[in-house]
UniProtKB/TrEMBL annotation, chain B:
Domain (Electron transfer flavoprotein alpha/beta-subunit N-terminal): residue spans on this chain: 4-181
Record note on quaternary structure: Heterodimer of an alpha and a beta subunit.
Cofactor list: FAD
The name this protein goes by in its record: Electron transfer flavoprotein subunit alpha/FixB family protein
Similarity annotation: Belongs to the ETF alpha-subunit/FixB family.
SMART domains: ETF (SM00893)
InterPro entries: DHS-like_NAD/FAD-binding_dom, ETF_a/b_N, ETF_a/FixB, ETF_asu_C, Rossmann-like_a/b/a_fold
Biological role stated in the UniProt entry: The electron transfer flavoprotein serves as a specific electron acceptor for other dehydrogenases. It transfers the electrons to the main respiratory chain via ETF-ubiquinone oxidoreductase (ETF dehydrogenase).
Pfam families: ETF, ETF_alpha
Transmembrane parts of this sequence: none
Length: 272, 318
């Protein structure tokens, strides 16, 4: 599989630990923060990990000197997102954890992540998911490109790297399918169209136990607590109200006339 | 009076519904000026002026906006915010709109709120979060407020012939906008003749249950003047273009009516459609989760229900 052409790559992949979308999710009454129990690796970040591993493997993988580091910022449990990345095949993990980070919005989050990326240094590719499944903003990747001064290739449905270290990629933009090109280093985000994420296998799970997860605090990154968390964020939630869940309406079984009943429904609702 | 900038990504011969929504919201908050994300000829500017734009900002070199991804547009927007002394910027809640807002917020040291459905006179923003399970009000606490507005959220401005003189474009230098990817080719979407999915009043969507044939879905859509949507199972199977995918990783829609045919109603599909005013679901399986949120649920075969409904609509329309 692996072609040992081109220089080895140093890749960083950003992963987030989020409440499982399959369960009901809640905002906590004070401060309107998200209840983060029952969290998992954001499923959209699995595509980013897969893309990172595939890029590394195209240059000969770990044996070829390629390195994939998984980085997360979040409370203690967030280390699990890094652990799963290591099980899938990442070589090393980093977890930024600090009480002062609570309540960080996209701007504050991207500030911390960008500072950590500079601190860790020397990446050819920074890879992210298309959106976190809790915040769902897709702001962090673009803000990282801005803060790191990297070309942004975001929401990609296909990525290729040639021997001359030029990335060619496709994205479905508002104006149509765009073909993009940029030399390394770059910031990339991938969609769920980009690949099929692998499952950690037994060997991967065993190997992950020997891999190291480094923890970093704000002090180690030289970040002032006042520039992050609620205090450092440029947005503030004023209030939050749960939606009345949608309830089921009328349910009918077709016995040959349901198409007509559908049209009656539309007429009654004054839609036609 | 607040100064509000509206970012128009692709000025068209007549402003789109989404663009008229942005202008209507801007005019309700203050004085509405437009930032042109590309060339806009006299007709395009007259259309935007007729829909409420009182001033225009554009790039000295609009080619740059087309040749490189996002970074030049950020430079233009930031220059326009400074030239106009803007209090807020409204952008479309598209991939491009969010990304431009994201980076502009870093340069302006301000905040961004995405997915807005309403903005009040104090610039407090209403949006829904966690796939529609909460409504949240939030505000931007420093710098010019950057807000991306979801389609179908406000009454669009009427595009009228203003009669008055159309204001000229104030051109701005983009300067050095930093490293960016080159856009080497763009393959435009194939025009279907149907309404734009994200802005449509009605959507008819098909899933794995159409089993390869979108004919009945398209036929009902055309009888209703609706856009066609799909589940990821249908787009992954290649039965319809990926741009029709509704859901977490596809398009988010908020139409008056969403007809879901042969779609089970997975959480990722619901995330993109459950803010529809009315939901009608057709599914063979009485236990399909989509029935839990449908205003009308029909247990039946879409291959017979959809054509019958389409024929009945055409009959009633005469
Ligand atoms: C990261 C991620 C992101 C995703 N993003 C999205 C997204 O954006 N949008 C999305 O839609 N999905 C998304 N999915 C996939 C989602 O989880 C479901 O797999 C998908 O929505 C299922 O599509 P479906 O309902 O068409 O197919 P199925 O779940 O297979 O359901 C088909 C339904 O059709 C019914 N049916 C069959 N034949 C007929 C007939 N003749 N008449 C009537 N009914 C019939 C069946 O009873 C069944 O309920 C995502 C998944 C992941 C992991
Ligand atoms: N706290 C975080 N830690 C690590 N990566 C993150 C974090 N927040 C966001 N990201 C990355 O940024 C992407 C987009 O997230 P968002 O902008 O929140 O929608 C995610 O898919 C992650 O790759």
């Amino acid at each position: 599989m692996s072609q040992k052409t081109g220089t080895p790559l140093n890749i960083l992949v950003l992963v987030k630990h989020v409440p499982d979308v399959q369960f009901e999710r809640h905002l906590l009454p004070n401060g309107h923060r998200l209840d983060r129990q029952d969290s998992v690796l954001s499923e959209l970040d699995e595509y980013a990990i897969e893309a990172a591993l595939a890029l590394a493997e195209s240059r000969g993988g770990e044996k070829g000197g390629n390195h994939v580091t998984a980085l997360t910022m979040g409370p203690a449990g967030a280390a699990n997102a890094v652990k799963k990345s290591l099980q899938m095949g990442a070589s090393a993990g980093v977890h930024i954890s600090d009480a002062a980070l609570e309540g960080s919005d996209a701007g504050a989050t991207s500030l911390v992540l960008a500072t950590a990326i500079k601190h860790l240094g020397g990446f050819d590719v920074v890879l992210t998911g298309m959106a976190s499944t809790d915040a769902e903003t897709s702001l962090v990747p673009a803000q990282l490109a801005e803060r790191l001064g990297l070309a942004q290739l975001t929401n990609l449905s296909a990525v290729e790297l040639d021997d001359a270290n030029i990335i060619t990629a496709t994205r479905m933009g508002e104006d149509g399918a765009q073909t993009l090109s940029a030399p390394l280093p770059v910031l990339i985000s991938v969609t769920d169209q980009a690949n099929e994420p692998r499952y950690p296998n037994f060997r991967g799970i065993l190997a992950a136990k020997k891999k190291k997860i480094t923890t970093l605090s704000l002090a180690e990154l030289g970040i002032e607590a006042s520039t992050v968390g609620t205090a450092g964020s440029g947005t503030r939630v004023l209030d939050a109200a749960p939606h009345e869940p949608r309830s089921a309406g009328e349910i009918i079984t077709d016995s040959g006339q349901a198409g007509l009943a559908l049209v009656d429904f539309l007429a009654d609702a004054k839609l036609i | 009076m607040l100064k509000i900038l509206v970012y128009i990504h692709a000025p068209a011969q007549t402003p789109t519904k989404g663009q008229r929504e942005l202008l209507a919201l801007a005019a309700s908050l203050g004085e509405a000026a437009v930032v042109l994300g590309d060339n806009a000829d006299d007709a395009a500017r007259a259309g935007l002026h007729g829909a409420g734009a009182t001033a225009f900002y554009g790039a000295v070199t609009p080619e740059q906006l087309r040749g490189e991804l996002i970074a030049p547009a950020v430079s233009l927007l930031v220059a326009a915010v400074r030239a106009a002394g803007a209090d807020a910027v409204l952008l479309p809640n598209t991939m491009e709109g969010r990304e431009i807002a994201a980076r502009a917020a870093v340069r302006l040291d301000s905040g961004v709120i995405t997915d807005a459905v309403a903005v009040d006179q104090e610039l407090n923003v209403t949006k829904s979060v966690l796939a529609g399970s909460y409504t949240v009000r939030a505000r931007i606490t420093r710098g010019p407020a950057l807000i991306t507005l979801k389609a179908n959220s406000v009454q669009p401005a009427e595009a009228q012939d203003s009669g008055a003189q159309v204001p000229p474009v104030q051109t701005l230098e983009l300067g050095e906008s930093g490293p960016a990817a080159r856009i080497t080719a763009t393959a435009p979407h194939i025009a279907s003749g149907r309404p734009e999915l994200s802005e449509a009043r009605f959507v008819v969507a098909g899933g794995r249950g159409v089993d390869g044939d979108f004919g009945p879905v398209e036929d009902l859509a055309d009888a209703l003047g609706a856009a066609v949507g799909a589940s990821r199972a249908a787009t992954d199977a290649g039965w319809i273009d990926h741009s029709a995918q509704v859901g977490q990783t596809g398009v988010t829609v908020s139409p008056q009516l969403y007809i879901s045919a042969g779609i089970s109603g997975a959480i990722q599909q619901k995330a993109g459609m459950q803010s529809a005013k009315y939901i009608v679901a057709i599914n063979k399986d009485p236990d399909a989760p989509i029935f839990e949120i449908a205003d009308l649920g029909i247990i039946g075969d879409l291959a017979s229900v959809l054509p019958q409904a389409a024929a009945e609509i055409r009959r009633r329309q005469g």
